């Protein structure tokens, strides 16, 4: 049985000269990233014990067990950090992990297939669903709001999207 992994952050590079790293956390509460135990690479080949040190511009300062030099920290730049799904807290009914939304079928209110969610983006103003849409050359980008996406049914593997005028 494989364990589903969720990306909770990434190492943005060295911070200082003593092996500290700048960590980007994708958690709602950024500091929570250190509470999930060892983090790993997506393939599980490496594990990282993370200790947060302080807030820094663009993220969190952190120490990673075994990393003691700037060169070692720089070598980890771009490494995505994952945790087993079961270590994450349960969410209220109207909240979702991005990983839960990716791969869902997207249907209009009448039941017609629109496409499939391929990514979830957030550039600061709210979540945006990227949808590979049937009959469209490029991806559709939809705000993930109750007005546009009134229904998410994880058990059925689909969501209902009421497309704004001009996107049909």
Detailed description of the structure:
- The protein has two domains: 5-87, Beta Barrel (Elongation Factor Tu (Ef-tu), domain 3); 98-160, SH3 type barrels (Roll), CATH 2.30.30.
- It starts with a strand and ends in an 8-residue tail after the last strand.
- It is built from two helices and 13 strands; from the N terminus they run ββββββαβαββββββ.
- The chain is elongated.
- The chain is mainly β.
- The mean pLDDT is 91.
- The strands form three sheets. A six-stranded mixed beta sheet has the order 11-10-9-8-13-12. A five-stranded antiparallel beta sheet has the order 5-6-2-1-7.
Helix content: under 10%
Mean pLDDT across residues: 91
Determine Rg (CA atoms, Å).
19 Å
Secondary structure class reads: mainly beta
CATH homology superfamily of the largest domain: RimM
Q: How far is the N terminus from the C terminus?
A: 41 Å
Number of domains: 2
CATH class membership of the largest domain: Mainly Beta
What's the gist of this structure?
Helix content is 6%, strand content 40%.
Question: Any descriptors?
Answer:
168 residues, mainly beta, Elongation Factor Tu (Ef-tu), domain 3, SH3 type barrels, 2 domains, 5-stranded antiparallel sheet, 2 helices, 6% helix, 40% strand, elongated
Question: What topology emerges from the helices and strands here?
Answer:
Blueprint: E1 5-14, E2 21-25, E3 39-40, E4 47-48, E5 50-56, E6 59-64, H1 70-75, E7 80-84, H2 98-101, E8 105-107, E9 113-122, E10 127-133, E11 140-143, E12 151-153, E13 158-160
Parallel strand pairs: 8-13
Antiparallel strand pairs: 1-2, 1-7, 2-6, 3-4, 5-6, 8-9, 9-10, 10-11, 12-13
